[in-house]
Amino acid sequence: MSDPSLETIELLLDSMSSMVGEDGMEHQFNASGKQWQLHGLYVTVFFSRRKLVAAALHARSAGAAYLRDLSISDIMDMLSDFAKRHYPLCSVGVPFAAQAASYLPTCDAATRMRLSEALRASPVFTAPEVMVIFPLVTIRVEADFSAAAVFLRPPAGLAQEFDPSPRELAPELFPPLVDARMRSERPASWLGLRSANRASAAKRARAVLGAVALTPSLAYRHMFSGRSVWGGHCVIDQSFSISFGDSLTPPISEDIVIGARDHGWLAVLADLLVSEERSARRQLSALQYYYRAWSLGASERFPLLCMALEALFGEDGRATAAVLEGVDRAIGPLDARRLQLLMKIRASVVHGGAPDVYESSKYGQYYRRYGEDPIRDMGLVVAACLRQVIFGGALVEHGEPYQDIIAEAQARGRMPIARDYDAVLQRQDESTEKSED
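and the corresponding structure tokens:
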């Protein structure tokens, strides 16, 4: 029976040598440690880049799941740091004289097992847990939501996520600490993720906000104003690490309000965040693509919308067919010819025929045939599929915030009666499909 941590240790030891070799990366460090005898001794170790990459790839496939959120170079650093922390064990039997051989042959089986046990308990195989909180400016929370992996709270509710702490919180401010000696801002709400590290939490945050982006009505989802937005994060484990940065959400003209009606789909999302199923990872990837598309202009948004569909439905070797079949299973049957033309526009953009969607000949063809913007229609299709496939219809748009005003203006003849803007989503019965064929 294979032992992934032992296999990783053997690959790591095989990457270590006291000579530079063909691709050795030099590391000089103090080999002392509280539990070791080598106080104040500096050593030089060369890590073969090629062999360390092999060890990192093995750790990525066999180790803690969050490693998939990290770059290979980050995992290489984790492994080389582990080797340096455990150098007295790694170097058992290694002669002081430089030699070209790796550390692997000189490390006996018992020592390898000790190193394997240490690696199994390290962050490479056992995911740590930190809390990362993100201040949100354009999202307000009227009904707190909290699960094991994620929470959305108004400022007043942040303290409920913490055990009593000697450091006093200032939840209405970012940074949320009374004794912070730096610039401060006032968030509208807090998004919190419990994850292995900041990178993993940021990836989860993109999935959460991709779902949140599905809640505004289409008219407001991409209606941006000149309002001031800002962002940042606070990592909380044994200490606080704080940084300002770009806003996680675009400057939408109307705040998104999270209420009790959203708790159903948030619970579904919370389960997805901790799932190891491949289908869950694909659904989270689709939400992340949708999030990345949210803040972009229409032409830049289009290819990312296509990628969201492919993340949800795509299959190797038959991407277009699989997407068309997936859309029909989820929200269809729809107008097949219309969907196929949308996919042809996607192909011209994604495969290099039109760097900008407006340059595609199919873009004008779609307008002539259907009288609608294909970018807008693609957005409608993607959003409907995400809602149905991931949330089973539990996530619904929040609706038009000024419906009473619009209705009054229409009644007085000051605004046209709204035409059918979502015709692309109208289901086709069998007879209609046959007549079109």
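(Above: one complete record from the training split.) DSSP finds 16 helices and eleven strands in the chain.
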